[in-house]
Amino acid sequence: MAYSGQDGQSGLPQGFLWGAVKAGIKASGNPDVAVAVAPRGASAAAMYTKNRVVAAPVTVGRRHLAATGGRVSAVVVNAGNANCATGEAGIQGCVETCVAAAETFGCIFDEVFPSSTGIIGVPFPAGKVVAAMPAIAAVLGDGAEQAEAFATAILTTDTKKKVARATIDVDGVEVRIFGVCKGAGMIHPQLGPPVPPHATMLVYLFTDIAADAAQLREVMPRAVEDSFNSISIDGDTSTNDTVLLLASGVSGVRLDDRTAEAFESALKLVCGSLAHQIVDDGEGVGHVVTLAISGAATEADAKTVARSIAHSPLCKTAWSSADPNWGRLMAATGYSGVSFDPANVSIRIGGLPVFEGGMRSPAFDEAAAHEAMTAREYTIEIDLGEGEASCRFLTCDLTEEYVKINADYST
Amino acid sequence: MAYSGQDGQSGLPQGFLWGAVKAGIKASGNPDVAVAVAPRGASAAAMYTKNRVVAAPVTVGRRHLAATGGRVSAVVVNAGNANCATGEAGIQGCVETCVAAAETFGCIFDEVFPSSTGIIGVPFPAGKVVAAMPAIAAVLGDGAEQAEAFATAILTTDTKKKVARATIDVDGVEVRIFGVCKGAGMIHPQLGPPVPPHATMLVYLFTDIAADAAQLREVMPRAVEDSFNSISIDGDTSTNDTVLLLASGVSGVRLDDRTAEAFESALKLVCGSLAHQIVDDGEGVGHVVTLAISGAATEADAKTVARSIAHSPLCKTAWSSADPNWGRLMAATGYSGVSFDPANVSIRIGGLPVFEGGMRSPAFDEAAAHEAMTAREYTIEIDLGEGEASCRFLTCDLTEEYVKINADYST
C-alpha cells in the first residue's frame, strides 16, 4: 500500500456531489452558498472552535451530529455572514436553511450540516440561503468543475481557493481523500479536543473509504493536531471554525487494521497541505515561518513556546523586515511560562546559528541571517535544551498590510 | 491627612540627587547614562519582570537587594543597550559599572542598583558607563533640572519624558513621592509577584518617608498590580522590566498605621499616572482604550478577559479605525478561557450600548459608536453577567505606525 498526494481537482472521491450559486450575501456579488451532497449519506465526524462564543451553525451542526450519531447527507455553507452573536433569530435562521436543504436534497433534517463564515453579529439572511436551494440542486455534479465551484464559494478574504487530495491504493482499489478549506483572517485554530481555533477556518474532508463515525472520530484529532491546531496567523480564535470529515464508503474499502495506517497518513497529508495553504494565504502575509521547537520537556511545552513566539507582535514585525532579531525570540520564549535555562538554548534561523550558550552565537552573521529571512518561507529552530519533546508550528509575519486589511474591515 | 498630585518637577523628595550625561551608547548621541544617589542611603524594594530570560542588571540588582536586605545608595541606569542575553560577559560588565559607581559615589558595592534598557543581545559597553561616572558626579544635584535630566536620559523610543508626583501632609510636614519611568515598545508588564512584564519598562519611585524595606515590599505590589500590571501595549513582556521604590526617610515622617493609608493612596496616584503615560506614549498609539470588565466571577477572570482583548490584533486594528466591531470583542472574550454565557454579556463602547442579550443591541447606533471611538481616549465596558468581580485595564490600538516602528527597529 502506498499513497500519493497532489493538489488539484482530479480523482475526486465517489459518493459526493458539489455545487454553488450566488445568493447575494457577499457584497462582491460572487458565489456565496455552497452545497455538498452525499446521495447515499456519509459517516461523519467534526471538530469545532473551542471559543465560548460559537456561531449558530456550530450549535446546530453539533446538535445534528449528536442526533444522527454521525451521519450527514448534505453540507450547506454560506460565506459573507457568520451567523454569530445573532441570538435566537440566528439559530432559527440556521434551522430554516437546514429544513430547506432537507426538502431540496431529499434527506432528513438532522442529516444536514450547516456552516457560515463572514462578519459576526449581523442578522443572518436565511431567506437568501433558502431561496438559493433550487438553483444549487440544478447545478450539482460530481466533477472537478462543481468541486471547484464549492471551493470558491466558501472563500471570504482568501485570495485563492484551497484544495488538496491524496489517494491510497488497497489491492488495486483506489481510496480517495479530497479536502477543501477557507482561511484568511482570525487564524489560530484550537479545535477541541485537543486544543481551541480563530479567524474562521472551515475545512471539509471528503473520502470514499468505508468507515463508521466512531472510527472517524478517532482518526481525526491526530490529523488535526499536527495541522490545523499547529498554525497561527494572528492568534485570534474564531467563533465558527469547523473541520468536517465525511466518508461515503462508495470505494468499498473498509477502514480497518490493514488500511488504517495508510489512510491516516493520507489524511494527514491532505490536512497538512490545507493548513499550509491557509497560512500562505493569510491576510497581508509576506513570510511563512516554520517554528521548529525541540529539546522541550514535553510536547505541550514545545507548543506553548511556539504559540508565544507566533503571537508576539515584536517577533512578527521583525520577520516582516527580515530582521534576525533573536533577542525578541528569546524574550517571547522567556515569557511563555515554560521553564528552561537560557544558557542551554540554541537558535538557528534558516539553518544559520544566531544564539547559543546564553548569548549571540560567535558564528552569528547578521547579513547572512537577514538574507535567509528575505525568502518567502524559512524555518526558525529553537532547541530549549531541556528534554526530547518537539513540535513544528506554522505561522507568519505581521505586516502593515495586515493592519490595513483589518482596520478597513467594516462592522 | 490629604494628598494632592500633579505631574511636574517641583517639590522633589529630600535625600536624593540626580544626574545624567552622554556616554555614547545611544546612536542618537543623546544623554544615555542616568544616576540617582541617596547620600545617606535609602530603604528599597523592587519588582522585576517575570520573563525567564532576564537581563544581567536584573540578576545583579536582585542579588544586591538580597545582600543588603533592601538598601540602595545609588541607582545607575543606561539606555541604548539592554545588557540582556549577553552571557557571563554581560554580568561582568554590569558588576564593573557597579564597582565604578560605588567608588565614585562613596557607597558599598552592594548598595548600587543597576538598570539597562535598549537592544537585546548586543555586547554591553561597560567601559562607556564606567568612563561616564566622574562626569555624572560633577553634575549631580537635587533640583528639578537634574531630576529632569535623569527622566530624559533613561528614555529609548519614548517620545516624551514621564514623571509624576504626589505629596501627603502629615501634621504640617510634607512627605513627597516622585516617580520617573520609561516605556514605549514591548509593554505588558507582569511584575512578580503578583503577575509577569514586557517592552522594557523602568520605573523609579523616590520618597522621603521613613520606612524599612519590609514595609516597602508590602505596600509596593498593591500599587503595581492596579497600575503597571494592568496595562498592555503589544502583549510582549520584556526581559528588563523593573520597578524600584526608594525611601530616604529624610522627611522624618514614619510609614505607620497613621500614615499608611494616605501614603499608599499617594503611591497609587503616582503609579497610575506613570502607567497611563506609558500607554499614551506607546509606539504608534492612536487611541488609549480603557477596558472596564465587570460581572466576572473573580478578579482573575476579569483580568484574563481584559488581557485576551488587549492582545487581540483584530480588536486592536479595529480600534485604529474607530470600527465598533463588537463581534471581535465577543470573539476575544470567548477564547479567553473564562467561563460565561454570551446571552448574559453586555458591551458598551464610549457609554453607548452595542451588545446585549446574546446579540447586537437594539439601541446599537454604528455611526454614534464610530464617532465615540474617534476620541483619543475612551472606555469599553464589558459586563460578563457572571459575578461581582471587576477590573480596569489600560491598552491601545494596533496601527500601521506600530508595525513600521518595530519592523524598522534594527538588530
UniProtKB/TrEMBL annotation, chains A, B:
Pathway: Amino-acid biosynthesis; L-arginine biosynthesis; L-ornithine and N-acetyl-L-glutamate from L-glutamate and N(2)-acetyl-L-ornithine (cyclic): step 1/1; Amino-acid biosynthesis; L-arginine biosynthesis; N(2)-acetyl-L-ornithine from L-glutamate: step 1/4. The keyword Kinase does not apply. Pfam families: ArgJ (PF01960). Its EC number is 2.3.1.35, 2.3.1.1. The active site is at residue 200. It is found in: Cytoplasm. It comes from the Bacteria. NCBIfam families: ArgJ, PRK05388.1. The record marks 117-118 as: Involved in the stabilization of negative charge on the oxyanion by the formation of the oxyanion hole. Its main location: cytoplasm. One of its GO terms (cellular component) is cytoplasm. One of its GO terms (molecular function) is L-glutamate N-acetyltransferase activity, acting on acetyl-L-ornithine as donor. This is Arginine biosynthesis bifunctional protein ArgJ.
